[in-house]
């Protein structure tokens, strides 16, 4: 299962549809809170694809919450960030680098995204 957390409805719907057409099980959430609800309710590990900047929070904050809780960590096999902004601060670059989180720039290129979704999860 792939969880797409994106506050822009058009972008979220486009990503969900593109992934469904490629036969992925996928659902969407429009906020950090909604994303957390989906993660808590997940019955099997999922891949998190989240926007870096969300209306009421950030995808990085969502990832921090997940990594701080072993029960949530077990429910997320991989996290992938996406952003439409190229003006990332050095602090954000450093944190993304430390956690080895892939980041894609919008509009998301499916030829870059699909390999990230299908590669083996690091152990």
Question: Which terms would index this structure?
Answer:
123 residues, alpha/beta, Rossmann fold, five-stranded parallel beta sheet, 44% helix, 24% strand, globular
Topology at a glance:
Blueprint: E1 2-5, H1 9-21, E2 26-29, H2 32-41, E3 46-51, E4 53-54, E5 57-58, H3 59-67, H4 70-73, E6 76-83, H5 90-98, E7 103-105, H6 110-118
Task: Tell me what you see in this structure.
The protein has 6 helices and 7 strands. By secondary structure, it is an alpha/beta fold. A 5-stranded parallel sheet has the order 2-1-3-6-7, sandwiched between helices. A two-stranded antiparallel sheet has the order 4-5. It is globular and about 35 Å long. The protein starts with a strand and ends in a 5-residue tail after the last helix.
Tally the helices.
6
Radius of gyration: 13 Å
CATH topology: Rossmann fold
The CATH class assignment is Alpha Beta
Number of domains: 1
Give the integer mean of the pLDDT values.
Answer: 92
Structural class designation: alpha/beta
Q: Estimate what percentage of residues fall within beta strands.
A: 15-25%
Task: Give a nutshell description of this structure.
The chain is of the alpha/beta class and 123 residues long.
């Amino acid at each position: 299962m792939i969880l797409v957390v994106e506050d822009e409805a058009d972008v979220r719907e486009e990503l969900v549809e593109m992934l469904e057409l490629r036969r992925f099980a996928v659902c969407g959430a429009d906020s950090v809170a909604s994303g957390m609800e989906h993660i808590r309710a997940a019955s099997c590990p999922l891949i998190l694809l989240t926007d870096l900047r969300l209306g009421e929070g950030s995808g990085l904050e969502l990832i921090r919450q997940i990594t701080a809780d072993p029960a949530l960590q077990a429910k997320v096999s991989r996290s992938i960030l996406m952003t439409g902004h190229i003006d990332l601060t050095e602090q954000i670059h450093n944190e993304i680098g430390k956690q080895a989180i892939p980041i894609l720039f919008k509009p998301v290129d499916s030829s870059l995204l699909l390999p990230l979704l299908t590669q083996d999860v690091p152990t």
